[in-house]
Amino acid sequence: MSPPAITVAALVERQGRFLLVEENIGGELVFNQPAGHVEPGETLLQAVVRETREETAWLLTPRAFLGAYYWRHPGTGKASLRFAFTGSVSDHDPGQPLDDGILRTHWLDRGELVALGTRLRSPLVLRCVDDHLAGGHRPLTAAGHLNMDTAHGFEAVHVA
After folding, report:
1. What is the domain count for the chain?
2. Mean pLDDT by 10-residue block, N- to C-terminus, for the chain (160 residues)?
3. Model pTM score
4. Domain carrying residue 120
5. CATH code for the domain of 88
6. Cα–Cα dist 8/18, whole Å
């Protein structure tokens, strides 16, 4: 099996409603938090801000780390490791084209999400909402990023 894809997701709540994207995945319309893959050279926070902007035309300000979630799709066997963040959005650009495959954005409450059932892209969508509602927030520093500038005293000889 191949290693899991490293992804990020943004959980944004406004007045009891959550920001979701409706997207076309393999010919099926599904709902997901703004989410995507971490690109080479990006930190997790940079990736979640970029993905949110690209998929929703909103600027995300991350506020807390929600958690890390490992999931393997039962049909394809593909695995992902999702790092989810909560935050607020501002500076919406309604003229910005959304990422390929993204049809539109929605603000849905938890009941509406439950009613979507199998139209949720994965079980992680509802799990992240429930963890957020339960108060499972951690400081942003819990999702640390090291590079050669921040890894003081670490020498290349330690790299495996």
Report:
1. 1
2. 90 98 94 96 94 98 96 90 96 94 97 96 96 93 67 49
3. 0.89
4. 5-158
5. 3.90.79.10
6. 16
